[in-house]
Amino acid sequence: MIAEETLERVRQAADIVAIIGEYVELWQSETRRGKCPFCKENAFHVWPSTRTFKCFKCSKGGNSFHFLMEAEHLEFPEAVRKVAKLSGVEVPAGDSDD
User: Fold this and answer.
1) pLDDT at 98
2) Cα 70 vs. chain centroid, distance in angstroms?
3) Which residue pairs, CB below 8 angstroms and at least 24 apart, start in 32-39?
4) Alpha carbon distance 21, 23 (integer Å)
5) Which residues of the chain fall short of a pLDDT of 50?
6) At residue 74, what are phi and psi to the nearest 5 degrees?
7) Residue ranges of the domains in the chain?
8) Spatial distance between the Cα atoms of 14 and 75, rounded to a whole number of angstroms
9) What is the pLDDT of residue 95?
10) How far is it, in rounded angstroms, from Cα 53 to Cα 59?
11) What pTM value is reported for the model?
12) CATH number for the segment(s) 4-85
């Protein structure tokens, strides 16, 4: 299990726009918008202030962990470690995937 304090550090450090921007071309409006990588509709929104995303067509949504789990078919610990790496946060060796 990855410690809750580690999860929170990674969540706070994650730039969801940069992470999702590697998969989706986002344009700026009141939120960041783009074509959903899951259903291909122009109903995809990213809110930098809350670090969340949502597609109003297919209903997929969540934070950067959820996005990578969907986009790359990762398990939760793998997604956390990838977000941590992208965000420059070290996950302590004592935080295992068990």
Assistant:
1) 47
2) 9
3) 36/60, 37/71, 38/70, 38/71
4) 5
5) 98
6) -95, 155
7) 4-85
8) 18
9) 67
10) 10
11) 0.89
12) 3.90.580.10
